[in-house]
């Protein structure tokens, strides 16, 4: 395990899953297979020693940029708006985290073949109501979402996640949501395998994440 601090990145299957840095920046994991699940997976080790990756609005922006859910120019604008309106940023952050927990609970129920709680469905529907203020804009041959609601609404950064969550449940994606069987992991992922036989959030049973956890605890304590 020595020298791990200098590893920089952990890679398996040719895909970099983690960027490690001595800087205590959030470490995002994109093993969920879809932005909605990656978002709820911003709490690591949910079923053992939960570790929060989102501490304020700027962390949410960082996540959305890493997941390529927001353009650089929109991200800069949001960052500026958040800095100018710290109280709005704090409020947006709290609401986004509440929504994330609702989504986790909802997706977990779906993964376990249970009926989602009415309150979780209600939270998603409310968020969808706001997210649908988005406008679809054609630029050349491509289409992009433009904010259609209040430009000052800092929660808009997660609207692509909200829309995707709805799509995921409406499509057959819902039946492919699974909970990782890794010890203490709790990650949710979309099983895209042909025979739907995937059991772990990563191709190998969370092995590398165990290393990351050890690395993180060494560097924060
Ligand atoms: Zn896992």
Secondary structure blueprint with pairings:
Blueprint lengths: L8 E4 L2 E5 L15 H6 L2 E2 L6 E2 L4 H10 L5 H13 L1 H26 L6 H14 L3 E5 L2 E5 L12 H12 L6 E3 L8 E3 L16 H14 L1
Antiparallel strand pairs: 1-2, 3-4, 5-6, 7-8
Helix pairs in contact: 2-3, 3-4, 4-5, 5-6
The chain binds zinc ion (ZN).
Bound molecules: zinc ion
Number of helices: 7
Low-confidence stretches: 1-23
Please give the share of residues in helix: 40-55%
Tell me the structural class: alpha+beta
Question: In angstroms, what is the radius of gyration?
Answer: 18 Å
> What is the architecture at the second tier of CATH?
Orthogonal Bundle
Measured by DSSP, the beta-strand proportion falls in: 5-15%
Please, how many domains? 1
Largest sheet: 2 strands, antiparallel
Rounded to the nearest angstrom, the distance between the terminal CA atoms is 17 Å
């Amino acid at each position: 395990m020595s020298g791990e601090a200098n590893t920089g990145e952990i890679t398996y299957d040719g895909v970099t899953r983690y960027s490690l840095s001595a800087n205590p920046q959030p470490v995002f994991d994109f093993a969920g297979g879809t932005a909605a699940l990656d978002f709820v997976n911003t709490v690591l080790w949910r079923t053992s020693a939960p570790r929060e990756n989102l501490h304020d609005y700027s962390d949410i922006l960082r996540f959305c940029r890493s997941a390529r859910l927001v353009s650089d120019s929109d991200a800069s604008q949001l960052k500026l708006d958040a800095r100018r309106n710290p109280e709005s940023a704090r409020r947006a952050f709290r609401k986004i985290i509440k929504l994330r927990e609702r989504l986790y609970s909802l997706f977990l129920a779906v993964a376990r073949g249970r009926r989602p709680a009415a309150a979780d469905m209600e939270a998603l529907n409310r968020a969808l109501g706001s997210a649908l203020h988005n406008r679809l804009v054609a630029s050349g041959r491509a289409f992009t979402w433009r904010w259609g609601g209040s430009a000052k609404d800092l929660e808009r950064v997660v609207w692509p996640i909200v829309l995707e969550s709805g799509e995921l449940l409406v499509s057959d994606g819902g039946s492919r949501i699974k909970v990782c069987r890794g010890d203490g992991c709790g990650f949710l992922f979309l099983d895209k395998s042909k025979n739907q036989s995937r059991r772990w959030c990563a191709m190998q049973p969370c092995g590398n994440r165990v290393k990351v956890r050890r690395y993180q605890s060494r560097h924060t304590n």
